[in-house]
Amino acid sequence: MHLDSSSGLVAYVITFTVRPGQQDEFLGLLEPLLDAMRNEATFANAFLHRDPSSDYRYMLYETWTDEKDLAEVQIHREYRQAFWRALPDLLESPREIQRWQPVRSDIRPPQPLSVTPDCAYD
């Protein structure tokens, strides 16, 4: 789907380099934050990725429908604070943040699961 510049959408790409041995704590703080973000009215989507060549690098892609709300309301939410307070101890270097304007979105809807006789359960 093509998006025009007046759509109001804004995307952020945030790269984290986690200290060795801190991945579980990092994810343990980030995953509840992502779960809470999902319920925000101006939240569009988020995708968390791990670098296939490094267990310590993560990339978070998030899209929001209202950048002003994100800056003035969302980043101040209480559920974000524990994660942000912990970052200096969890990260090898400061996170990298890039702002992007979405131009196009292509997401394939989930396909229904089908059971074939070959994999039927007894």
Radius of gyration: 18 Å
Strand order of the largest sheet: 2-3-1-4
CATH fold type: Alpha-Beta Plaits
Characterize the overall form.
Answer: globular
CATH class: Alpha Beta
Number of helices: 3
Helical content (DSSP H or I, runs of 4+): 25-40%
Query: What is the ordering of alpha helices and beta strands?
Result: EHEEHHE
For the biggest sheet, the summary is:
4 strands, antiparallel
| Ends distance | 44 Å
Low-confidence stretches: none
The helix-and-strand class reads: alpha+beta
From the 3D coordinates, which CATH architecture would you assign? 2-Layer Sandwich
Q: Could you give the count of β-strands? A: 4
- The percentage of residues in β strands lies in 15-25%
Mean pLDDT: 89
Can you tell me the number of structural domains?
1
Task: Annotate the secondary structure layout.
Layout: E1 10-17, H1 23-37, E2 43-50, E3 57-64, H2 67-72, H3 78-90, E4 96-100
Antiparallel strand pairs: 1-3, 1-4, 2-3
Helix pairs in contact: 1-3
How would you sum up this structure, described in words?
This protein is an alpha+beta fold and 122 residues long. The chain has one domain: Alpha-Beta Plaits (2-Layer Sandwich). It has three helices and four strands; from the N terminus they run E-H-E-E-H-H-E. It has helices at residues 23-37, 67-72, 78-90; strands at residues 10-17, 43-50, 57-64, 96-100. Strands 2-3-1-4 form a four-stranded antiparallel beta sheet, with no helix packed on it.
